[in-house]
Amino acid sequence: MKYRRLGKTELKVSIIGIGTWQFGGEWGLDYSQKEADAILDKAKDLGINLIDTAECYGDHLSESFIGSYMQRNNRQDWVLATKFGHHFHERFKRTEEWTPQEVVKQLEASLLALKTDYIDLYQFHSGPDEAFDNDEMWNVLNKQVEAGKIRHLGTSIGKNDNIHQTEASSKVNSQAIQVVYNRLDRAPEERVFPTCIEQDLGVLARVPLASGYLSGKYKPGAVFDETDVRHRHDREATLQKLQEVERIEQQEVPQGMDMAKWALAWCLKHPAVTAVIPGCKNADQVTINASSVDLVSTNHPQDWKD
Predict the structure, then answer these.
(1) DSSP letter string over 141-154?
(2) Which residues contact 238 (CB under 8 A, 6 or more apart)?
(3) Is 263 exposed, middle or buried (0-12, 13-18, 19+ CB in 10 A)?
(4) Distance between CA atoms of residues 140 and 99, nearest Å
(5) What does each C-alpha distance from 55 to 149, 174, 196 come to in angstroms?
(6) Which pLDDT does position 89 carry in this prediction?
(7) With contact defined as beta carbons under 8 Å apart, do 213 and 200 qualify?
(8) Model-level pTM?
(9) CA 26, CA 91: separation in Å to the nearest integer?
(10) Which residues contact 256 (CB under 8 A, 6 or more apart)?
(11) What is the pLDDT of residues 205-256, one digit of tens each?
């Protein structure tokens, strides 16, 4: 495994992380603790130390699976990132909660679910600019940093060209940006990444496999079960994406190479990107994801130097 410095946080994170939205049951599978443990065990074996989750992946369900795992493992070996701003009601239904009081309540619930005294990276979760611009909310959060319940604050931007929230990061003490970035969606390269580099913000690339479309497993016309969030995607847009994936596979991916491995390495080559946080349905997918480090050089500006 290779590691990079997550911007000004100085956290040492594996360049491959584990995204855990799937643990909340919205990607076509319901997980048991045993199944979640198998994924996290494999991650640990492969040197992965970064886990990304959220309060609304289930009603703190994903966090609870991770917390139960942490009880039986060394918490200090892991970098736990979670998010705030939404309340899960049922599959695919959430409400937004941004008042300082609600945010602190969510923080306490996340700490309880994760069974930890502190969160390494606590991220504003895809909220509107109006909520982001609430100074009182950030003041309260920074007090939680001073209290030791949060090590670092971050922002998960909902739109991958949200330059307003990205540029204001240093002002509110947000030290990392999470953004959709993959071979099918390169919008952050235009405006978001340059200001991340300028401010020395860590960058977590979410959806690096474009919701699995860049895994190479799905062909144009693929249909997803209604329990899978991809069932809600626009069908015409999905068809166009999968047609583009076929073109990329034929013209850009070296023959015989696993496409998921190639797609993750593609993201990691950008000088702004610290790590990718792909979801994974089982331990075998963790192994494939981790193998992408073989394609990543060691001259990235955030490479960890012991």
Answers:
(1) HHHHHHTTSEEEEE
(2) 213, 222, 230
(3) buried
(4) 10
(5) 16, 19, 25
(6) 72
(7) no
(8) 0.92
(9) 7
(10) none
(11) 999 998 878 988 877 767 777 776 676 777 888 788 889 889 999 999 999 9
DSSP string for residues in the chain: --EEE-GGG--EEESB-EE-GGGGT-BS-PPPHHHHHHHHHHHHHTT--EEE--TTTTTTHHHHHHHHHHHTS-GGG-EEEEEESEEEEETTEEEE--SHHHHHHHHHHHHHHHT-S-EEEEEEES--HHHHT-HHHHHHHHHHHHTTSEEEEEEE-SSTT-HHHHHTHHHHTEEEEEEE-BTTB-GGGTTHHHHHHHHT-EEEEESTTTTTGGGS---TT----TTBGGGGS-HHHHHHHHHHHHHHHHHTSPTT--HHHHHHHHHHTSTT--EE--B-SSHHHHHHHHGGGGG--S--TTB---
Q: Using one digit for the tens of pLDDT, what is the confidence trace for 137-169? A: 999 999 999 999 999 999 999 999 999 999 999
Instruction: Determine the longest span between alpha carbons in the chain, in angstroms.
Output: 54
Angle CA(68)–CA(70)–CA(74) in degrees, nearest 5?
A: 155
**Residue entry with tokens 């969160």:** 119
Q: Match 């999470």 to its residue by tokens.
A: 178
| pLDDT above 70: residue 289 | yes
Burial 18-29 (b: 16+ CB within 10 A, else e): bbbbbbbbbbee
Nearest to 273 by CA among 244, 298, 249, 302: 302
> Any idea which residue has 């307003």 for tokens?
164
What is the Cα 192 distance to its own chain's centre?
16
User: In this structure, which topology does domain 3-295 adopt according to CATH?
Assistant: TIM Barrel (3.20.20)
For residue 114, list its beta bridge partners. none
**Taking Cα atoms as reference points, which of 69, 278, 265 lies closest to residue 178?**
278
Cα separation, 24 vs 38, whole angstroms: 16
Please name the amino acid found at residue 111. Answer: L
Where exactly are the structural domains of the chain?
A: 3-295
